[in-house]
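Morning F.,

Quick status update on the modeling queue. The single chain you submitted on Monday has been processed. Sequence for confirmation:
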Amino acid sequence: MSTTSSENSLFVTLVKGGRTKIRYPADLVRDDSTRITVRAPWALPGVRDFGFVRFEPGDVFTEHYWRDRWFSVKEVRTGGEPGGSGELKGWYCDINRPAVLRDGELLVEDLDLDLWVSADGSSVLRLDEDEFEESGLADRDPVAAEAAVRALDELEQLVRAGGLAELLS
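Structure tokens below.
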């Protein structure tokens, strides 16, 4: 079933280390049975300045999650129109287990590794590799750890080859 109406809402629950990191409401934009796309405003209070980008109240995230891939891609824009048509800041990509949508909740387990892609594509940054090492996932679940590293490598290669737009189309 494919859904294109933004009238459907759900909750996105991000879990990290077995605990809920954040839970926020989002509008379901599309679900084609493989990829789930939602849109939500910046869910945390205040500004988060990473040095290479600032997430702040009013920013709109269009988030793409897959049921069969170990990552998600979040397009980040300034406020602009309700549909998230403000200025593009870039894409924040999380390495996570494949997403599960059940009973109005999109459940995503964050595996610490991240990738940032600037709006113009000139900056591609691997993030939080130290957190990933410290998490102990390689000892607890070596299969998942290997899948996470492989997903980060594949996603970075895809981005550097100019394939992000095709992935999200």
